Each structure stands twice: as C-alpha cells, then as structure tokens.
Request: fold
Amino acid sequence: MPELPEVETVRTGLAPVMEGQVIARADVNRPDLRWPFPEGMAARLTGQRVERLRRRSKYILADLASGETLLIHLGMSGRMVVSGDPLGRFVHDHPLPEKHDHVVFHMGNGARVTFNDARRFGAMDLMPTATAEAHKLLAVLGPEPLGNDFHEDHLVRAFSGKNSPVKAALLDQGIVAGLGNIYVCEALFRAGISPRRKAGQIAAPRVAALVPIIRRVLEDAIAAGGSSLRDYRQADGELGYFQHSFDVYGREGAPCRRPGCDGTIRRIVQSGRSSFYCAQCQR
Reply:
C-alpha cells in the first residue's frame, strides 16, 4: 500500500500536466473499482478545469471548477501513467490501451493521464468541494503529520493511557493521518523506541520528540522521491514508488546502522504486519 511520501510524489508528478488544465474528455471503462464509481462520473469530469491538486493523508484530491472534488486512492496496485506531456518530462507517444486502464483523463493540453489498477483495490469518488472534509473517508482522519495541527501536545494527549503498542497507535489514522508501516518503523528506529512498547507507558518527553522525527522521516522520503522524479525517464511515463535507503525496514538480520550499536535488525509480526527494529538500541 503506498504511503504518504509515495502519494505526495505522485501528486507532485501529476500537477504539471493537470493543475490549471481542462479535462477534455474522461473515459470510465468499468462501473467500479473497490466501490462503484459515482453516477455520471465521466460526464461530470469532462470539460472541467482542475483548479488544484492536493493531498489528504493517502488520498489525492482534485478540486474542479464545477465545485466538485475528485478523490483518488491508489489502493495496492494502482498507478498513474502520464503520456503526451507537453512539458517534455515524460514520453510523447501515447501507449496502446492496457487491460487494466480503468479511468483515462484526456487533458486539453495534449497530455493523457491513465489510472491503471490490476487488483482493483483503488477508488475514486466525487463530492462537493465545500464539504469535502466531511466525506466518510476523510472525516475520520487525524491531523496531517506535516501540518501545524500535528504537534507535541496532540501526540502526548493521544498516547495518554493508551494500552496498544506504539506502532499500532501511530498507524491509527485518527491519531495521525497518512502514516504507514514502512515509515512508522523508520521513525521508531530514529527515536530509539521499540515497536513493542505500550504507547501509554512512554514518557511524555519521548513522545513529544517523536513529532519532529516523524516529520524528518517523511520529508527525507519525499525529497528522495522528488529527486528520482526529476530524473525519471521510464518509457511508459509511469509515476511510481521510489526506493529509499531504509535503516530498518526490510533489513532483517542486517547489522544496525546506529553508530556504536552492534545489534542486528529483527522482524516481528504485529497485527498481521511486519515490524523491523533493533532490539538492542530500541527500548
């Protein structure tokens, strides 16, 4: 499942070809993905200018001139493919349609943006822009980890008396929006906190220190994705997910990278997900 940095990277890549541009035609090639598409989606999108592309948690939101907002969730295998980009950042020739090209945006500037999703766990919806935050998928979300509402006092209050492991608490989208398995593992490593620790048993100063650490982890990942995007020249113009240098994630059995620590990275399963950590320096 793509996490916040990957979704932000995709949003950044789409902005030059979609933001401020008109959707000359929208093709919707099936009635549903994870859920049914909204009624008349193709007609409601066709002819609309994309006023703004933004991100909320792991969702991309396209605010339209019609006063509606298109919500896009990539799911587990969804990808956005750009072709015919007039800015010359991607391939100029449109590829032949593929089996899983479910939604296609033909932009007025000559670009084509295709949503391809082999497993069909992605989703799209349309909602009034003025009440977008009340949408059922957005209303339950906590503050953005890179926004002003995510601060030390908020996290200390959220963790107070909480009996669940700290990793589970950070994955709770009602506490902080957009964090996923990979970057929670990375943030806990930088903080020196074991993913097994009960959230409510961590001293307030250590909880408060997690806030800037989480921000730095995400900013580092976004910066890495952005650098990759500027040099990206894959033939089909896909905006995908980029490899980062992880300290713990996926490094089971490898030596700990913390200076002075001679531990090795372990893998455990928590709530059906892999947690990677160093048992020697994460307490």
In short: Confidence is low (pLDDT under 50) at residues 229-236. Helices lie at 4-18, 41-45, 152-159, 166-171, 181-191, 204-230. The longest helix spans residues 204-230.
